[in-house]
Amino acid sequence: MDEKLWAQIDAEQPVPAHIQERMEECRKKRMILPEDSLIKRPVMVEGIRKAGVINTGVLDEVGKHIRAGMTTQDIDDIVAEYTAAHGAICAPLHYEGFPKSVCTSLNNVVCHGIPSRLIKIHDGDIINVDCTTILDGYYADASRMFMIGNVSDARRRLVEETKKCLEIGVAAAQPWATVGDIGYAISKYAHSKGYSVVRELGGHGVGCDFHEDPFVAHIGKKGSGMVLVPGMVITIEPMINAGKAGVVIDPYDDWTIYTKDGSDSAQWEYTLLITETGNEILTY
């Protein structure tokens, strides 16, 4: 966000005094606190919320059309067309060289799969579609799993349990809890079901930029990491593997990340606002 605009918003809508007081109490306990710039003000939250409506709409639109026989490029076309028609921008396009408007990750692809006319979706596949939308300078980010046709019981269970991991993470993301509480809750559940949790990748702050602090690991220790202060906007996006946790990056495109052992992987993602009483999901 432009520094002048940020300064104006900060002057007009400062962090409320009672939140500053609570932060000072945490600071005295040597807890890790966010910079004031990570605490979104009402005008910012409204902008992110509007971006979130379009982002959710994009994924709804994909859900209406995704099927066996189409290519992952067909998904990219749907995302690009819907986003443009609603006056928004696809954040992934050209981000650090990423060549497409959305990430499409099939089966053993953990994340950052690049859409292609050469990659066809087949009956029995599972696929993650990860969409980030920019509207009037504000970002919203979410991803969903889609099960195509006759999916095996093992794949269906992986998708459903990964969704449960996300829900458990959201439940742990309470005001004045910590980022570590989220990772602890997710990893405890995933491991209890026999799955592994990807460590190298995680959620993040979002809203005024694509990726902001803090890094939201999906494995962690209770009470560790940054305090979740009301006004923070973060993503929670657990990547859960059916096999081991190790991942590798495609040496040819330098984007696509696979499970190292070739096992299936699943991911769901929400953007949520930490409120004074809990949290609010802004896109899903």
**Rg measurement, Å:** 19 Å
Helix content: 25-40%
Largest sheet: 4 strands, antiparallel
Count of alpha/pi helices: 6
Give the strand content. Answer: 15-25%
Secondary-structure element series: HHHHEEEEEHHEEEEEEEEEE
Q: What would the average pLDDT be, to the nearest integer?
A: 97
Spans of 5+ residues with little confidence (pLDDT < 50)?
none
| Overall SS class | alpha+beta
Quick one: how many beta strands?
A: 15
Q: Quick one: overall form?
A: globular
Distance, first to last CA: 24 Å
Subunit organisation of the chains: single chain
Blueprint of the fold:
Layout: H1 3-12, H2 17-28, H3 42-65, H4 72-85, E1 89-90, E2 103-106, E3 109-111, E4 126-135, E5 138-147, H5 153-172, H6 179-192, E6 196-197, E7 203-205, E8 212-216, E9 233-236, E10 239-241, E11 247-249, E12 257-259, E13 265-267, E14 270-274, E15 279-283
Antiparallel strand pairs: 1-4, 2-4, 3-12, 4-5, 6-10, 7-8, 9-14, 10-13, 11-12, 14-15
Helix pairs in contact: 3-4, 5-6
